C-alpha cells in the first residue's frame, strides 16, 4: 500500500476564483456568436458547450467554452471568444474536435478503480505529491472513447505521468510523461523509463497544512545570481567559471548580488522562502528540506543547496510581481490559492527541469550545472506556467509554441538586465550558464530559420524538435522587443497568449498577439511593427480592419468669457489599419466654440468608422489657481529612482501616474512647496503624472 500525501485532493481541483471567475455577463452573447458561426466552426449539432474559464484582462474579456458530449467534457476541445473593451467580438480561436463520435458516456468503472489501475501500471513506491482523475470523451487513434485520465506525481517518478484508462473495459490505453521540460538535448524526447527504485521515504508531512503560529510576512535579503555568473562578468564557460561539481570559488562568489526579498514568511521567528506569490516545497527527490532558518537573510554560497533555493525563489517572486503589479497582467496559478510551488532540488537530481501542469508547480534538476542557478532556466519554466494559466490549462505545444514562449520570456528578462551588448554572441544565448558548455548546446534567439519552411516537422509533444522550432517564435518576438521595448512587448505577448488554445500554432499565436495589441489601443505604428516583423519571418498576417479609438474623457477650462475653442483631437485619437494611413476628422469641427458644460466629440476615420468621447468645459481658473498651477515643476527628468514635484499647493492634491498604455501604475498626494516620490519600482519608459483636482498633467521619463 503506497503512502499518499496529496498536494491537491484527488478528483477535484481548487480553482483560484479570485483571478478566474467562471461566470460572465457576456456568456449568452458568446454562445449566440458560436451558434451563428456554427458552420464556420464545423460544429456537430449533437455537441454542446459549457463555459469553463473566464479571464478579464487588459485586452478585454475572454471566454472559453468546453466542448461537451452528454455533459462529459471532450478532452482538448474548446472554442475561445474574446470581446474587446467596446464589447465587440474581436478574436476567436478553436480546438473543437468535429471527429468526436456519439458514444455512451456512462462509465462502467469508478474513479477509484481507475486510480488503482493507474497506480499498478506506474508501479511507484515513493510519496504521492499530486494525483487527480477526471472523466473525458477522448479521441485516440481515430476512435472515440470514454476514458479516465489520471495524473500522478510521486517522489520517485521523474515527471508528470498521465495514464488513460478505458472507463468501460478497464484497459490501459496510454502511459506517458506530460511534464514540460527545459529541453536539454539528452532528454528532448522525454520518453523516460519509469524508475522503480524505492526512495528513502520521510514520513513527515512536509506538504501538510501548516500551523499559523504568529505567521506573517516580513522583508528579507538573499545572495543570488541576477541571471547567471557568466553574464554577471561577461565571460564564457571555462576557467574559474565552471560548475566543478557545485564547488565555489572567489570568482563565482563575486558574481553573486545582494537583493531584497519583499516578502518572506515569519512563523514565530522561523523564516521561510514563501511569499504571496511563491512558496518553496520539497515534493521530489532528493529531499533536501525547506531551508528554514532563524534569520531573514538567506546568504548562501553556490556550493550550498540553500543557494539554489534562494535563487529560484527570488527570480520567481520578482517575476510574478513584475507581471501582476508592474505590467498589470493578472496571471497566477489555478491551485494553491494562486501561489506557485517550486522544488529547487528535484527530478531525482537529473539534468533537466520542468513545469508540472497538473499541480501548477515547478521543479529544477541538479545534473551538470544546477538548473536553479541559471535565470534563463527559471524564467523559461515559469513561461510554461504563464502560458498554462493564461489559457485556463490549455497551452499549446504545436510548432514548439510553448517552448518558444518560454525562451522568449527568459530572454526578455535576461536582456532587460543589460549584461551583454549586441556585439556579444551571448547577447542572444538561451541558458548561458546551464548550456553552451559540455553539458549541452543551449539555444538562441537569433535563429535564422523562417516559418513554416524552417520547421523541423514537430507537430506534437512527442517530438523533441519542438524545442528547436520554438526558436523561430522566440527570435521573432525579440525582434519586436528590440523596437517596442520590454514593457509593451511583454504585455502584448501575455495578453495574446490568453487568446490561444491547445491547438494554436505559431502563425495563429502571432495573429493573437497582434490582436491583443489592437485591443489595448497600441499605436498604429506599434501594430505595424508587429505586422512587419511577423511577416518578415514568414507568418501570414491578415489585413487589419479599420478601427478607431478615442481618448478618455477630457476636462479643460473656458476663457474669461466662458468659451472654449476646440483644438484638433486627432493626435489623441488612434486610428488603426494595415498601412496606418487613415484620415481622422472631428465633429464639432476644429475651431468651433463651445461653452461651459459637457460636450460629445465625435472622431471619424476615413469618413466611415467613428468613436465618441466627452469633453468637459469648466469655468475659467481664477488668478490664484492659474499662478499656482503654472508654476509646478517636476525634476529631474529623465529620472531613475525619485522625482520631485515643486509648486505652491495650499491643500492636499491627489496625483495619479499612468504608463504609456494609459494604465494607472501609482498614486499619491502632494502638498506644500515640495514633494518627493519614489519611482524605483516603475519600468523604464514614458509616464504621465496627472493632478486629479486641477486635471493638469506633466510627462516624465523613467530610465
From TrEMBL:
Q: What domain of life does the native source organism fall in?
A: Bacteria
SUPFAM superfamilies in the record: Metalloproteases ('zincins'), catalytic domain
Metal-binding among the record's keywords?
yes
Alphabetically list the UniProt keywords: Hydrolase, Metal-binding, Metalloprotease, Protease, Signal, Zinc
Chain ranges of the Secretion system C-terminal sorting domain: 634-698
Domain FTP: from-to ranges: 63-89
Q: Is Protease set as a keyword in this record?
A: yes
From the UniProt annotation, give the residues forming the signal peptide.
1-21
Task: Give the species this sequence originates from.
Answer: Flavobacterium sediminilitoris
Which Pfam families does the record associate with it? FTP, Peptidase_M36, Por_Secre_tail
Q: What is this protein called?
A: T9SS type A sorting domain-containing protein
Amino acid at each position: 500500500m503506497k503512502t499518499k500525501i496529496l498536494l491537491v485532493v484527488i478528483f477535484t481541483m481548487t480553482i483560484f476564483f479570485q483571478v478566474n471567475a467562471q461566470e460572465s455577463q457576456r456568456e449568452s452573447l458568446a454562445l449566440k456568436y458560436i451558434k451563428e458561426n456554427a458552420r464556420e466552426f464545423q460544429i456537430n449539432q449533437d455537441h454542446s458547450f459549457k463555459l469553463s474559464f473566464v479571464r478579464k484582462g487588459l485586452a478585454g474579456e475572454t471566454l472559453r467554452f468546453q466542448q461537451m458530449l452528454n455533459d462529459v467534457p471532450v478532452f482538448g476541445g474548446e472554442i475561445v471568444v474574446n470581446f474587446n473593451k467596446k464589447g465587440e467580438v474581436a478574436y476567436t480561436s478553436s480546438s473543437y474536435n468535429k471527429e468526436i463520435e456519439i458514444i455512451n458516456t456512462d462509465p462502467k468503472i469508478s474513479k477509484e478503480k481507475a486510480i488503482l489501475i493507474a497506480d499498478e501500471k506506474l508501479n511507484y513506491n515513493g510519496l504521492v505529491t499530486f494525483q487527480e482523475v477526471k472523466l473525458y470523451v477522448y479521441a485516440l487513434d481515430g476512435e472515440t472513447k470514454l476514458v479516465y485520465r489520471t495524473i500522478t506525481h510521486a517522489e520517485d517518478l521523474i515527471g508528470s505521468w498521465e495514464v488513460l484508462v478505458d472507463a468501460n473495459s478497464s484497459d490501459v490505453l496510454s502511459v506517458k510523461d506530460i511534464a514540460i521540460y527545459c529541453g536539454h538535448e539528452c532528454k528532448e524526447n522525454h520518453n523516460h523509463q519509469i524508475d522503480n527504485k524505492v526512495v528513502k521515504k520521510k514520513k513527515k508531512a512536509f506538504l501538510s497544512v501548516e500551523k499559523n503560529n504568529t505567521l506573517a510576512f516580513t522583508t528579507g535579503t538573499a545572495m543570488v545570481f541576477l541571471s547567471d555568473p557568466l553574464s554577471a562578468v561577461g565571460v564564457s564557460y571555462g576557467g574559474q567559471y565552471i560548475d566543478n561539481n557545485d564547488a565555489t570559488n572567489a570568482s563565482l562568489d563575486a558574481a553573486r548580488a545582494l537583493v531584497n526579498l519583499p516578502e518572506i514568511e515569519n512563523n514565530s521567528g522561523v523564516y521561510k522562502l514563501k511569499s504571496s506569490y511563491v512558496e518553496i516545497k520539497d515534493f521530489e527527490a532528493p529531499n533536501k528540506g525547506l531551508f528554514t532558518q532563524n534569520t531573514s537573510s538567506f546568504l548562501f554560497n553556490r556550493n550550498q543547496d540553500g543557494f539554489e533555493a534562494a535563487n529560484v525563489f527570488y527570480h520567481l517572486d520578482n517575476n510574478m510581481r513584475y507581471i501582476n503589479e508592474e505590467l498589470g497582467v493578472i496571471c497566477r496559478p489555478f491551485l494553491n490559492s494562486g501561489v506557485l510551488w517550486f522544488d529547487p532540488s528535484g527530478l531525482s537530481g537529473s539534468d533537466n527541469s520542468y513545469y508540472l501542469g497538473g499541480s501548477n508547480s515547478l521543479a529544477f534538476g541538479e545534473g551538470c550545472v544546477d538548473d536553479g542557478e541559471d535565470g534563463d532556466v527559471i524564467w523559461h519554466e515559469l513561461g510554461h506556467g504563464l502560458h498554462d494559466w493564461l489559457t485556463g490549462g490549455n497551452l499549446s505545444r504545436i510548432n514548439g509554441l510553448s517552448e518558444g514562449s518560454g525562451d522568449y520570456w527568459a530572454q526578455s528578462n535576461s536582456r532587460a538586465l543589460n549584461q551583454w551588448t549586441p556585439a556579444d554572441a551571448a547577447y542572444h544565448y538561451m541558458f548561458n550558464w546551464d548550456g553552451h558548455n559540455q553539458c549541452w548546446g543551449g539555444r538562441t534567439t537569433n535563429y535564422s530559420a523562417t516559418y513554416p519552411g524552417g520547421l523541423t516537422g514537430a507537430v506534437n509533444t512527442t517530438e523533441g524538435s519542438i524545442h528547436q522550432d520554438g526558436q523561430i517564435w522566440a527570435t521573432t518576438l525579440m525582434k519586436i522587443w528590440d523596437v517596442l521595448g520590454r514593457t509593451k512587448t511583454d504585455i502584448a505577448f501575455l495578453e495574446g497568449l490568453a487568446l490561444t488554445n491547445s491547438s494554436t500554432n505559431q502563425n495563429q499565436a502571432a495573429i493573437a498577439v497582434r490582436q491583443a495589441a489592437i485591443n489595448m489601443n497600441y499605436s498604429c505604428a506599434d501594430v505595424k511593427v508587429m505586422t512587419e516583423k511577423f511577416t518578415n519571418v514568414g507568418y501570414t498576417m491578415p489585413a487589419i480592419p479599420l478601427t478607431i479609438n478615442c481618448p478618455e474623457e477630457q476636462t479643460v477650462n473656458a476663457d474669461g468669457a466662458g468659451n472654449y475653442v476646440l483644438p484638433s483631437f486627432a493626435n489623441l485619437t488612434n486610428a488603426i489599419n494595415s498601412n496606418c494611413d487613415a484620415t481622422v476628422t472631428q465633429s464639432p469641427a476644429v475651431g468651433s466654440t463651445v461653452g461651459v458644460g459637457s460636450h460629445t466629440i465625435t472622431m471619424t476615420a476615413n469618413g466611415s468608422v467613428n468613436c465618441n468621447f466627452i469633453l468637459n468645459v469648466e469655468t475659467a481658473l481664477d488668478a490664484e489657481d492659474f499662478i499656482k498651477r503654472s508654476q509646478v515643476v517636476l525634476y529631474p527628468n529623465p529620472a531613475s529612482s525619485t522625482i520631485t514635484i515643486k509648486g505652491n499647493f495650499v491643500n492636499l492634491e491627489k496625483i495619479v501616474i499612468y504608463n504609456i498604455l494609459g494604465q494607472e501604475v501609482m498614486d499619491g498626494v502632494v502638498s506644500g512647496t515640495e514633494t518627493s516620490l519614489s519611482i524605483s519600482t516603475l519600468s523604464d519608459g514614458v509616464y504621465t503624472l496627472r493632478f486629479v483636482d486641477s486635471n493638469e498633467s506633466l510627462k516624465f521619463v523613467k530610465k
